[in-house]
Design goal:
By secondary structure, this protein is mainly alpha-helical. The chain is built from six helices and three strands.
C-alpha cells in the first residue's frame, strides 16, 4: 500500500521542509518512492510549469508564500502521480497567489490528465473544479 501511494498519489501540503533547498524538497518524494533522485528531474520540473528554476538552490523558508506553495506543487508533480490530493492548498495565500496556484492545479489536470481532489472552503477554489461536492453541515 505504501509503495502504491508513493508512486500513484501526490499530496499538496500547505508547507514543506523549510531547512531544505527547493531542489532538495523536490527530490525527497523520489527518494521516498525508491526512485533515482538526482537533481536532474527536479530541474526539469521547475522551469517548465512552476517558474522556479532561478530559485532551485534557495532554502524554501526564504521564499514568499505563493512561491512556497508552487514548490509544494512541483514536489507533488515530480513523481508524476495519477491523483493529487490537496487540503486547503490556497488557505494561507493572498488572492493573487491563490489564483496562481489554482491555475497551476487546473493546468496539471488539463495538460497532464491528472486528477486533483481538493478540500476547500473558498468559493474561488471551487470555481476551478470540474465537480464540486458539498458536504453540507455536519451533524
Amino acid at each position: 500500500m505504501t509503495t502504491c501511494r508513493r508512486r500513484r498519489a501526490g499530496f499538496v501540503f500547505q508547507d514543506m521542509l523549510p531547512a531544505l533547498t527547493v531542489e532538495e524538497n523536490l527530490v525527497l518524494p523520489l527518494r521516498r518512492a525508491g526512485r533515482h533522485a538526482d537533481g536532474k528531474r527536479a530541474r526539469a520540473v521547475l522551469p517548465a510549469q512552476f517558474g522556479l528554476a532561478e530559485r532551485s538552490h534557495d532554502r524554501s523558508e526564504a521564499l514568499p508564500g505563493g512561491r512556497r506553495q508552487r514548490v509544494t506543487m512541483a514536489r507533488t508533480s515530480v513523481t508524476e502521480p495519477a491523483v493529487i490530493f490537496g487540503d486547503e492548498p490556497t488557505g494561507a495565500l493572498d488572492l493573487r497567489s491563490a489564483r496562481d496556484v489554482l491555475a497551476l492545479l487546473r493546468s496539471v489536470v488539463d495538460q497532464y490528465g491528472r486528477t486533483v481532489v481538493m478540500v476547500a472552503h473558498d468559493p474561488l477554489a471551487a470555481s476551478y473544479a470540474d465537480t464540486v461536492v458539498s458536504g453540507g453541515s455536519l451533524p
